[in-house]
Amino acid sequence: MNGVHDMGGMDGFGKVEAEENEPPFHETWEGRVLAMQRAMGYAGAWHIDDSRYAQETLPARTYLAVSYYQRWELAMEKNLLLRGYVTEAELKAGHALGPTKPLPRKLSVETVQAGMTRNSFFRQQQGPARFKPGDRVRTRNINPLTHTRLPRYARDKVGTVELIHGCHAYPDSVATDRGDDPQWLYTVVFDGREIWGPDTDPTLTISIDAFEPYLEPA
Predict the structure, then answer these.
(1) CATH, residue 153
(2) Which of 94, 107, 188, 211 could form a disulfide with 39 if both were Cys (CB 3.0 to 4.6 A apart)?
(3) Mind listing the pLDDT tens digit for each residue in 103-139?
(4) Contact assessment for residue 47 and residue 174, using Cβ atoms and an 8 Å cutoff
(5) Which of 147, 159, 192, 178 is nearest to 51 (CA)?
(6) Domain that holds residue 99
(7) Alpha-carbon distances, residue 191 vs 33, 36, 203 (angstroms)
(8) What is the CATH number of the domain that holds 50?
């Protein structure tokens, strides 16, 4: 979706200031949010792309005003409500008000290491790859209303396939509960001028990872 989260190529957000000796968390609650998110992911309540999509659907004013882990927390609330794990009344009360929906599995002390290990998104190929390294491709000019990993600045642009990463779960399908729908994943390199125009540094190149449905022969 074309939300405010897709900031690539946008101006006006100020300089990124690196914080010297930055701690993992600035507030105790941030660590708790991370722990809850990883616990729900391990439990199979939702996938990482569901979390990303929930953040993307936050109102633009909210998305820009809150911090990184606040976005995580708000997205978690949305997924908990959407998937029937809590009610609005329970969120306000801060505790369960009745029988709860069971989780497929639960994170425990014994399984915390597994819970903190990211799953592989590699999937069995469903057919041959359409493209190979060296092929010239054009990204599709798509404007989906739901989650996509193809940024706006890289749409309808011509580049060259650099690498093939195999088949992976397709985020556009996963985030809308349509299953893994495995798709080939490529690294595509673009001349900087193709992306940013003729005034760009001529030595600049930009590489993105793009799923096969995002691409067509150039």
Answers:
(1) 2.30.30.50
(2) 107
(3) 999 999 898 888 788 789 999 998 999 999 999 999 9
(4) yes
(5) 147
(6) 28-115
(7) 40, 41, 8
(8) 1.10.472.20
Report residue 155 as tokens.
């749409």
Any domain includes 202: yes
Tell me the whole-structure pTM to 2 decimals: 0.92
CA 146 – CA 53 distance, rounded (Å): 7
Please indicate, yes or no, whether residues 148 and 213 belong to a single structural domain of this protein: yes
Distance between CA atoms of 64 and 57, rounded to whole angstroms?
A: 12
Q: What is the structure's pLDDT at 160?
A: 98
E strand or H helix at 75: helix 68-82
- What's the rounded Cα separation, in Å, for the pair 55 and 70? 10
Residues 6+ apart with CB under 8 A from 142: 148, 150, 155, 214
The count of structural domains within the chain is 2
Q: What's the pLDDT at 119?
A: 81
Task: Write down the H helix ranges in 99-217.
Answer: 112-115, 171-174, 192-196
Q: What is the pLDDT of residues 83-113, one digit of tens each?
A: 999 999 999 999 999 999 999 999 998 988 8
